[in-house]
Model the fold of this input.
Amino acid sequence: MQSRCLQFAGLFGVIGLAIATWSTSPSQAEPLPEKDLDWMVPNSGWMTKESDRIPIVFVSRATAKADWEKLPKYWNEVTETTGANAGRKVVKVKLPLGLGVLPPVPAENPMTLGKWKLGKQLYYDMVLSSNNTVSCASCHAPETGFAEPLKTSTGIFGKKGGMNAPTVMNSAYNSKQFWDGRAASLEEQAQGPPGNPSEMFSGTGAAWPDAIKRIRKNPEYVAAFRAEFGTLPTRDAAAKAIAVYERTVLIGNSIYDRADLAMRVRVEEEESAKLAVIAKDYETVLKDAISKKDDSALSALGLTAQAKPAEISTIAKQISEGRELFFGKARCSLCHVGESFTDYDFHNLGIGAKDGKLTEDQYGRVDALPTGHKNDSMIGSFKTPPLRGLVSTAPYMHDGSESTLEAVIELYDRGGNINPFLDSKMRDTNAEDEYLKAKAEGKEWKGEPVSMFSPNGRPVIPFKLKLTTAEKAALVVFLKALQSDPVDPVVASH
Ligand code: HEC
Ligand code: HEC
Done:
């Protein structure tokens, strides 16, 4: 705080100097000032005129169907023909089917094409790491679903972190970032890795100030920051630019989404049809994917363009059954809800618990809660991840401990890993109540033996799903049917 105040006191003097020195195009003869590396007051003379900026807007089928249907592809650079902005260029991002809600954008960081390009360049640039060896893409590469195929991350000097890299895909929708939710936004999150000694920071010097000094040595970057933010490169502006890029890393249009649409069409056509997706809808969209040679959707399900009708109908039935289980008997939708299949909340499934005990590094969400607000129910809790890109983001869970989807289903079938803080949604609370009642009445407990108790004395009885082999298989096929189209090449290309 103190340093921030000091910074502010000296700010106008320094800006004055900066403006005097840098009011024309940046010359590399003199080194740039090594001050105000965090944030600067913008100089309007440097900034691209508002009317010349190209805004990026999201268009979803749910909120603007006619406009959405007209857009030919994901990334559309168009000129507005009507309204107050007629004649102005704009990028319209056609949200993939299934994403009806527009990604929230903070008021202080409106989306523009210029910022997006700058953010994209920073995302793939090693300059953010102390020794120019690691970029964001080192751990969140497009080729591996914007996540990492490793159990836990490898960063600078080959150092191992303790966490599995979550995907950046659709992270635009996360209400909190990181497995423990310690960052409130993509802007805040992006400031983490460059200062993290097991990710991008060598541990000597000052992580961010040094990174910004390196960026200021590149005249192209200096020109881009001046144009977009009206400042020299700063930490604030770099974080904003990266976040603008990340907000466009979006996926949808899975077989599941297409079947949902097929169901709506079927209901419109057949008067007696009921508003629910059935195997027939999955069959329709699978056949359609085959005729369009949509390899990515088909290969996620182990299908090829040569698939026989019988094979297609078997898979369609499995997806349909898996869907019923997901929203019913298997209780997945207690936590995996909505368009991204997450409640954005935190739950303890006992991942990382050994012999019923959690180690200190597995406390999760409770560590991120401020002192005075620690909530015992958050001990060992981690963020519910979205489920739209699972085929490309193995291994799974915050510590990468489950290598396959089959293993994930086995974990849920046994009610998670038992520990004193197991989430209430993972527990057989009825059985727990009966146990307490029997004890209170001095009766013998006839259910499964109880070996674990919460600190409040409540027994911990995991909810066993008791799924059959066929049901487990159907759930896995359903998860694969959530696999979305790959990120659009305009966004995913380096
Ligand atoms: C060395 C590997 C590594 C590098 C480099 C790295 N990340 Fe990450 N990233 C991770 C890991 C591991 C996590 C999860 C850490 C945690 O939750 O404590 C993570 C979390 C995230 C998240 C949160 C996603 C979610 O669902 O909560 C985002 C977004 C993200 N990183 C973006 C970036 C950006 C942007 C950069 C570059 C500035 C970057 N990462 C650099 C490994 C890395
Ligand atoms: C009590 C809430 C809850 C329920 C119920 C639940 N999940 Fe999860 N799920 C989570 C949380 C939290 C995680 C991350 C846990 C961790 O890493 O510590 C997770 C992780 C996953 C992952 C790994 C994703 C990744 O990217 O690593 C998959 C797959 C998954 N769940 C599928 C399911 C399925 C299928 C069901 C139903 C059988 C289900 N979940 C039921 C909360 C839940």
About this structure: The CA atoms of residues 254 and 484 lie 4 Å apart.
